[in-house]
Fold each of these.
Amino acid sequence: MIPYGRQWITDEDIDACRRVLRSDFLTQGPEVELFEGAVADHVGAPHAVAVNSATSALHIAYLALGLGPGDVLWTSPITFVATSNAALLTGASVDFVDINSKTHNMCVRALEKKLVQAEAVGRLPRIVAPVHLAGEPCDMAEIGRLSRRYGFRVVEDASHAVGAQQYGHHIGSCQYSDITIFSFHPVKIITTAEGGMALTRDAALAGKMRRLRSHGITRDPLEMVGPSDGPWYYQQQSLGLNYRMTDIQAALGRSQLKRIDDFLSRRHELAVVYDEAFKEFEHSYRSPDAYSALHLYILQWPSTSRLSRQQAFEALRAAGIGVNVHYIPVHTQPYYKNMGFQEEMFPTSMEYYRRAITLPLFPHLMRDEQKHVIDTVLQLTC
Ligand SMILES: *Cc1c(COP(=O)(O)O)cnc(C)c1O
């Protein structure tokens, strides 16, 4: 089966992990700090906090921004459940903003309309979490403008967008957001097996997130309330968790990061071949103002095809092509329906979902494998 996404591990990556295994630190230590510095430098953000997953990064980002009971967070229905689940874990409630039919990212017109209505009833969100679907950046300048007008904070879920750029800046530089989070899950752009990171320009937020990832504890005498008891002393100042990344993972991440430009250019080369083959169909939009990380190549299954999306999905799997669907709209999950969400509250997301199909795309996808995907799709759509 050709998977829809796959990591690329080299001997150099393995050597980097092996060196850590023979060193003094296995869990969070010098390698985590080096990896944080390397990612921060790459994207142009002053502060980076590495954690054990993007889900954890979202959770501490929301907590650091004060999200909690009585607050609301808004995101896109077309995302992985983690974006909204992490908000529910803080005790806040969530709501969704429908997607744009062309970009499949949160629609800024729908966002503005919903903000006007929310302001009128005094129920503005504390945080809006745009998701850069497939690695294509959301309209961040516009979301930034709305955040200043309506006073909400912005957390970019850039799980798909490590290495992406917009208006000449890397995603993660937080030009228009408070915090950006990355995922290093194996199918994403670079991997640490499990892992995530939160980036910010705000030193105080970074400090809060560092404490939250490790039990709310600080060992820095300068951050302490009152004098330190001595060199052994640590102080718990908030309620935190153990979300630490290991040094083994960080070493893998830093080794992978060295090849990110090659990973992205290979994804772009393959996507151009798909674009040409599928120029008759709707597929993942790419703005001329941005450089997508192209985490996913999503086709909208043509409604004129003799096969339904489901039949096509099954036929592609039977032909050894590991297609997938990103994503089942979060608000249609039973857990969310129990909160009162109904499918047709976000009609563009539903329309998108019913035809979405993700084709294999990863840096070492072979040309003959890609040709097999293209030939099979074209056969099934004719
Ligand atoms: C993968 C993903 C996450 C969660 O990432 P983990 O590192 O697996 O916790 C969150 N949001 C989106 C959009 C994702 O694709």
Amino acid sequence: MELADAYRRFTAGTHAIIDLDAYQRNLRALRARAPRSSALMAVVKADAYGHGAVQCALAAESLVDWFGVARIQEALVLRARGIRLPILVMGPPNVEELELAIVHDITLSVGTIEHVAAIITAARSCGRTSQLHLKIDTGMHRYGFHPKDALAASQYISHQAELSLNGAYTHFATADESDQLPTKLQIHAFEEVLRVLRSHEIAPRFVHCANSAAILTGMTGTTNMVRAGIATYGISPSDEVPVPNEFQQILSVKTRISRVFELEAGDGVSYGLSYRAEKREHVAATAAGYADGLPRQLSNTGWFSAEGNLMPIRGRVCMDQTVISTNRKAASGDAVCIIGDGSLGEMTLDDVARIAGTNSYEIATRVTARVPRVYVRDRDVVAIEHLLLGEAYA
Ligand SMILES: *Cc1c(COP(=O)(O)O)cnc(C)c1O
């Protein structure tokens, strides 16, 4: 199937559109806000927060220095699709996949001595050196060496022929909150570890701590790389740390009206009949539901839109369908926007997150595999990825 045919076919139903120009602008804006000459890691874990890691990585490749993922499998997908830049797996590595990671030149994070030992074994058995970044737990209390164990761990690593200590980093727990004290304490603990390592002639090439929120608030410490995820997608880390105006949400989700009809006063809608029309009302059914990633909490609360006309959701969001209030002119086949950048009043990821009582990170990553992703650049469709069908068009 040609790209044009795939576009016709997939945009006739629920689909996501990813603006790669806006993604590249966001990446440039983040680099401009990072300390001078700092390397930039684009975090594309969780399928690029739902935006599609392969196409995002292809678009970012010329603008960034590293990619960051959470799992070895995510890194392998990028390698299989031709991504050559260094990739750091930030999560604890799956020990059954270490050899695959090493063979594909994937940099691993180590935060326990057991993982170091497993990597030595794996590196020996494939006859290669493994690149490591030392993860130090300065307060997040999730993964990483305790600061007091960091020196011994790095010395041990430095003595292994199969290992190369290429980086050291930590991760902030509260960089997206207005109280910066906990982040300052984490930076202090991290810099102290680096000082001790240096005094023992251990100076990893890449030292990094800042996520999007820390880049935006300037809490980067004395490091030479930053790791940016959420803000690259134009989404604010939190209400307290919003992205500046130059950033733009790159994701929109659209669907089409599948049936238009009228409710009479008193008619109920959808499971539980939780909405009842007060008077005659024009409504429409759409083929988008919570199995596409729309939180069920949008029931009777969220809205779809078309060119600035807001269309409130009536009744419960179902697994595969949602009913909206329209006007007389709506017709079957009409395109409607579910999530957009808000410029015409459409629901943004932040709006959806607020209604669902969660953060935008979760809403973006929830867009499911059956929603085809359409990638746009210079107003042209450049690629389509359909995870459920396992198909890609370019
Ligand atoms: C996800 C992640 C990031 C990116 O965080 P954002 O808030 O999305 O910028 C950075 N570092 C680590 C270790 C992560 O897990």
Amino acid sequence: MSENPILARYHAVRDSIAKAATASGRAVGSVALVAVSKTFPPEDIALVLAAGQRVFGENRVQEAKAKWPGLRDQYAGIELHLIGPLQSNKAGEAVAFFDCIETVDRPKIAQALATEITKQGKHPILLVQVNTGAEPQKAGVLPEETDAFLASCRELGLKISGLMCIPPADEEPALHFALLEKIARRNGLALLSMGMSADYEAAVKFGATHVRVGSGIFGHRAQPM
Ligand SMILES: *Cc1c(COP(=O)(O)O)cnc(C)c1O
């Protein structure tokens, strides 16, 4: 019997990440695969959980809260990343539910997260989203404003561990990966979440510590998100 298509793609992605890391002289374990499970049902997610995957990305707080509690009861060691835009009125739920919030992108969110982290005594890993292409429709801090935003996060007592970006669809992603790496390096930040299904191998070459792969594992998404 042939392997389930989701599992076949999952293993192929893992192999490609390992090859890209090795080709760049990096340890295979230095790149974490964030399996982006937004819009996909718990049955699909359970397949890759059973294959050993533990780090997942979701775009929406409500969707994650509906899908994940049951899976968390069944599998230990799950690490959930919020990779979609966060509204300040959801900051409390996000801090309570996610292990990593990749989309800190404006002062209001930084303030709301600082308040909730103090209140709950829970400390998710935090990344700042950078709008490397300065696209008006896209979330994220502008590259030239990132240093100042990071400083304001520090003043709030927020520990930021790294940066995240989504390059413009019609541009060479490598330029954006290189820019994100440069901003992270000059700010002493260790984590770089960059690269999706179409370009994660290039992202590994530019130093990604986290690649976010959705359709490349789970297949085509019916709902656009
Ligand atoms: C949906 C999404 C991904 C995964 O995209 P694919 O092209 O399906 O791999 C990665 N990052 C973010 C922020 C996303 O919203």
Amino acid sequence: MQLSFDQITIDPVYLFEERNIKLSILRLDKIHPVISGNKWFKLKYYLQEAKNSGKKMIVTFGGAWSNHIVAAAAACGEYDLSSAGIIRGEEPSLLSPTLMQAKDYGMQLHFISREEYKDNSIPAALGREDYYLINEGGYGPLGAQGAEEITDYVKDDFTHYCCAVGTGTMMAGLINRTRPTQQVIGISVLRNNFQLEQEVAALVHNKYHLWKIIHEYHFGGYAKHSAALIEFMNDFYKQTSIPTDFVYTGKLFFAVSELIKDNFFPAGSKLLVVHSGGLQGNRSLEKGTLIY
Ligand SMILES: *Cc1c(COP(=O)(O)O)cnc(C)c1O
């Protein structure tokens, strides 16, 4: 598997010049078409710790279209670890392309009911193994530590970082590495997940930094979408040639555009929006929905 960290660029987008807002996009989506942007960063230190503690296998959780599951499967291959994915819901007769790919990377898949999934229950089949557990989405201090390294690819000075928020791990990593004069704005892709502030704060160690999570752009909830979101993503692609995914980065760019129009950012702001990848998830949309 070829990961192309040297392909990461910062692309300027000239859509908001009139409002005196400079917008640049950190293209973590260019690392790999499937192993999406932030997941590799978040997994790195977990896998190192698993190796260092002599574990041979990792176990983690996700849904049928999970970027985290497929990235974990691929990354374990690179680290010479075996992997098991605990997948939410009944086993379908036909696996999603995401799960097929995870399987191709060598991951064993275990399907559990939504109720069992809520309790993070580990299937009996895995009970005897000496495995290393990684939280869903890589939430935790080591995930945030890995996400800090996203900022290594940023040389210019920005007033704000903007990112999509699922578990908040990436956002915490960004907060930990930015300077106190820089603000980190997170767009939650979950509906009314007001525990997020606490979960991010638990991973942040510079307590005086300015950050804010915005909860108004979930489009109905996790992996939900509307015609307006899809239209925005297609328009954004026409204008910038940058593809986004409907679960995370589409909502992020939509939100940032709206916030700019609402004068949320002071004139003269320089925004860095993190394109955290996730494009593989668009495969769950009906063909023809997106123009790319
Ligand atoms: C997982 C993911 C996120 C969310 O990252 P968290 O650290 O869980 O907040 C954002 N964007 C994409 C594309 C993702 O796959």
